[in-house]
Backbone:
C-alpha cells in the first residue's frame, strides 16, 4: 500500500503577503491565499454608493469609501433616518476583503436586502436595502485601469 500525499500552498503568521511557501501535507490541507500573493497588485478602480430613495421621489447619493458607515436614528450615524421604527444604531456597512458588508446591529424591526431579512450579508451591485421603510439602492462599479 502506498501513502498518497498532496502538495498544497500554506501560510503561517510569519509569512508576509509576498512570501508564500509550499509544503507537503499528508491529509491534503489547504489554506486561503490572498489575491495579491499570486496575482500581484491589480490596478482596480472601485466606486460604490448608496442611493436613498425618499418620499416624493427625492434621491440622495452617499459615496461609500473603505471606512465604516452606520445607519440609524441617532445623530452620530452617518446616514440618519428620522423614523420611529428605525433603531438608534440600526445597521452598519463595512468594507472588508474588497467587498461591502451589511450588518444589522440588533435592530427591533430588522434590515432587509432584496426583500429578505438579514443579520449580515455581502452587498452586490443593485441590491435593494430596506430599513424602516426607507429604500436604498447599493451600486458598485469595478473597473480595471490601464497600465
Residues:
Amino acid at each position: 500500500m502506498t501513502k498518497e500525499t498532496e502538495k498544497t500552498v500554506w501560510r503561517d503568521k510569519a509569512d508576509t503577503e509576498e512570501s508564500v511557501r509550499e509544503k507537503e501535507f499528508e491529509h491534503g490541507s489547504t489554506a486561503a491565499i490572498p489575491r495579491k500573493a499570486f496575482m500581484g497588485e491589480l490596478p482596480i478602480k472601485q466606486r460604490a454608493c448608496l442611493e436613498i430613495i425618499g418620499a416624493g421621489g427625492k434621491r440622495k447619493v452617499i459615496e461609500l469609501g473603505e471606512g465604516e458607515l452606520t445607519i440609524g436614528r441617532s445623530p452620530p450615524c452617518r446616514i440618519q433616518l428620522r423614523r420611529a421604527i428605525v433603531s438608534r444604531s440600526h445597521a452598519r456597512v463595512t468594507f472588508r476583503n474588497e467587498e461591502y458588508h451589511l450588518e444589522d446591529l440588533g435592530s427591533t424591526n430588522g434590515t432587509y436586502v432584496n426583500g429578505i431579512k438579514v443579520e449580515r450579508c455581502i452587498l452586490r451591485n443593485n441590491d435593494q436595502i430596506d430599513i424602516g421603510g426607507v429604500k436604498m439602492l447599493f451600486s458598485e462599479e469595478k473597473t480595471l485601469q490601464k497600465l
